[in-house]
Structure formats: structure tokens, C-alpha cells
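Bit of a strange request maybe. I'm writing a small parser for C-alpha cell strings and I need a real example to test against, not something I typed by hand. Could someone generate the C-alpha cells for this chain?
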Amino acid sequence: MGEAKEHAFRYSLRLSGRCFFLVGLTISVGMLHAPKAVENRRHDREILSLTARDVRSVVLDREYKNEAVKQSVNLVHKPITVTDREEVASICEALRSAKMVSPNHPTGRWYCALTLVTSNGHIEIRVERTTGQGVILWLRKSFRCDEMGTVLESIARKHDFGKLTPAEAEERQRNSCREIEDCAAIFPAILVAGAAFIFFVVPVIPMWNICRRVGFSPSISLLMLVPFANIVLLFIIGLRQWPIDRHLEKLSGCDQTKAGDKR
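Reply from user aminoacidic:
Good idea to test on real output. This should exercise your parser:
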């Protein structure tokens, strides 16, 4: 009884020591990342507090430049340099209205690479108008700024579509939105097809060898492609006696026979 209590006491000490070690490790990792998180917040806050006096000009450019398939999701079709002070002021005012958010896998309608030219250098911001989650500004953290989307769309309509008639500009923008929606509709189908391939097609490869070793025809492994039939196949293979089991039983019987003969 005394040995059992001592063993339990030592086990509890080891368990407590491991728990304290994990807690200390977690706190240490958090302390290491805390200064970086503070720096990121300070960096983003300085950008969002810029005024029109701090910004010399603003450049709107395509987010996707080399991927022909994604050209339609760009807000602008060529770089636009904004020097008009009212437009620069409207962009800076929109920045100050941004609120930090944690977007949940947003689906983009259009993208824009926004560059603020200041006396201290260039500041790049990725802007994305999403479906259902507003306009997202991607800095070191993510911020929601719906007002920025309205301002940039107005500037893009004025500069990028400036040589077109209002009807042509509206038709061009409508076509771009339609292409984006088509791409967004294809994505769930690709996701479902990929999941079906992983969960149904890939298991056929190991099941082919398993069926051959159990004594079944390897072609039975194709049942893994059929829903519910694949579950039945797993039960049959799992409950069936494998050749190795029969071989071990034979060896055990031979050993018992030899032992009886010696007696």
C-alpha cells in the first residue's frame, strides 16, 4: 500500500512539472511575439493617420499583373497616378475611417494595389472589395474601410474609363463584375471535386494492395469510389481472417503437434 501511494505521488509530481513547463513555454512564446505585435499596430496606426499634407500623390495599380486569367478582377486596367489634392484628401480621409477586423475567408470582387507616395518613401496597401464583408485594407493587420472602396471606384471610373462614353464605361464595368462572379461560382465546384478526389480516388491505391494480400481480387478496391460501399468494404476486410492469421494458426498447430510427439 505504501509503495502504491509513493508511486502515485511521484506520478503526480511528474505530471505537475510537465504542466508547469508547458505553461511557462506558452508564456515565453507570447512574450516573444508581444513586441512584434505592438510594432505592427504602431506601423498600421501611423499609416491610417496620414493626412493630405503627408501624401504627395497616390498610385492605383493592378494587383494581378502577370496572370491573364485574373486581369478582370483588377479595379484598374493600367496604373493611375492621382495628384489632385481633393482626391488625395478623400483617400486620406477614408483611411482614417478604417476599423480593424478579422475577415473570414473573403471572396474578392475586385483588387487594387494602392501606393501612397510620401516624403519618407512609398507605402503599399492592398485593397480588396469582398462579397458580404465590405472593403478590406491589407496592411500588417486587416482593416475594413467601405468608404475607401467608394472613393477608389470613383477615381477609377474617372481616369481608367475617362475616354469611354458613360454607357461604354458602365458596360465594361458590368462585364468585369460578371467575370468575377463566374470565377467565384467555379471555385466551390473545384473545391468539391478536390475533396472527392482525396477521399474517394486516393484510397483506391493502398486498398488495391490490401485486397490482393487478403485474398480478394484487387479490382474490388474500386468499390472505394462508391459511397457507402466503401464503408462496407472496410468492414469486410477488417473482419475477414487474413492469410497471415491462417499461417500463424498452422504454425501454432505444428508446434503443438511437435510438443505432443516429444512427450
